[in-house]
Design brief:
Helices cover about 30% and strands about 25% of the residues. The chain contains ten helices and 14 strands. The strands form three sheets. The protein has a seven-stranded mixed sheet with strand order 6-14-11-7-10-9-8, with helices on one face. Strands 1, 2, 5, 12 and 13 form a five-stranded mixed sheet that branches. A two-stranded antiparallel ribbon has the order 3-4. The radius of gyration is 24 Å and the shape is globular.
Length: about 325
């Protein structure tokens, strides 16, 4: 390990790997537990730091490595596993080092009763169930030209921004809309046990959206924690649609200092990964994103003529899955 103050830089991994001891030293610390999850990695694979790794460093004194956290490690960890839309809205993120599937316990509400003075309440068996999550491999690819590689040291944050966008796009598309086939996770749109609301057209009406809120509330969903998720096109259509003709009262409005759209008083957020004609109403706090091991980076310099052109491709792997703790608090509207 190099002395304190040396910055962790992704650009160093794009150069001569044999001469990079600081970044590869951290990779080797992450390799053993991560290989139990991924399986044996190739010699060119680099395991990148995680938020958990940064947290552990932050618990130490500077002499024991705590000073390393501010030296570029957090920036790389954040790009390798960026905060997703669901996590920004309150979904829980779980990073585990164990191998194989994990079971998330769910406690379902029991029953109670009013009792007379001195009497014992009737026995009630609490119901406990679990949801199983198993890792699916998300691979994000980022192409780098010869010139960009030469400038990587000066454009470190630019490269990290591109990695963050590619990883978020790959994982978010699966977590929202994948159907569980072709090694993909089961996204929110295909959650077993979720509620449903039928729409007569691609743009829902006031009555249909109100019924969707009613279904959510009837399942003991907390309205203060609810939000809508929809395609940007659907959001724009709601901004243009009146609750009743010639009233000027629109289904969706944009207000507040942060210009946050809302539909029937509930905040609305958009993602292009949700198909048009589908609108989700959910409580993000009942959603868990799970990651296994550390992100794995492979730099491909040779396939498809890259060795001749000097181009390279970064392939970043994340083993991850999504779980909905209370499917009844997810209401899917569609036409």
């Amino acid at each position: 390990m190099k002395p304190p103050g040396h910055h962790y830089r992704l650009a160093n991994l794009l150069g001569d790997r044999d001469g990079v001891t600081y970044e590869t030293g951290i990779s080797n610390r992450l390799r053993q537990p991560s290989e139990k999850v991924f399986g044996p990695a190739g010699s060119d694979a680099t395991f990148l730091p995680t938020a958990t790794f940064c947290r552990d460093l932050g618990l130490q004194t500077g002499a024991l490595g705590g000073n390393l956290v501010s030296a570029g490690i957090e920036a790389v960890a954040a790009a390798a596993r960026p905060q997703l839309l669901l996590e920004r809205l309150g979904a829980q993120r779980l990073e585990v080092s164990q191998t194989g599937p994990i079971n998330l316990p769910i406690w379902q509400a029991g029953s109670g009763a009013w009792v007379a003075d001195g009497a014992a309440p009737a026995a009630s068996a609490a119901t406990v169930r679990s949801i199983t999550a198993s890792g699916k491999m998300a691979a994000a690819r980022i192409a780098l030209s010869r010139r960009l590689q030469l400038q990587a040291a000066d454009l470190e944050q630019v490269v990290l921004n591109e990695i963050s966008a590619a990883v978020a796009d790959t994982i978010e598309s699966g977590f929202l809309a994948a159907n569980g086939s072709s090694n993909k996770p089961l996204g929110l749109l295909f959650t077993p046990g979720a509620g449903n609301q039928a729409y007569a057209s691609a743009t829902p009406s006031y009555s249909e959206l109100a019924d969707q809120i009613g279904t959510y509330a009837a399942a003991d969903g907390v309205l203060e924690r609810a939000c809508w998720l929809m395609h940007p096109t659907t959001a724009v259509a709601l901004l243009k649609q009146e609750i009743a003709a010639n009233t000027g009262n629109m289904l969706a409005v944009i207000s507040g200092t942060n210009r946050q759209p809302s539909v029937l008083g509930i905040p609305a957020y958009t993602s292009r990964h949700i198909p048009t004609g589908k609108v989700l109403l959910t409580d993000p706090s009942q959603i868990v994103t799970i990651y296994w091991g550390a992100p794995q980076l492979i730099i491909d310099r040779f396939s498809n003529g890259k060795s001749a052109s000097g181009a390279a491709e970064l392939i970043l792997f994340n083993l991850c899955d999504i779980a909905v703790l209370h499917p009844a608090h997810l209401i899917i509207g569609s036409n």
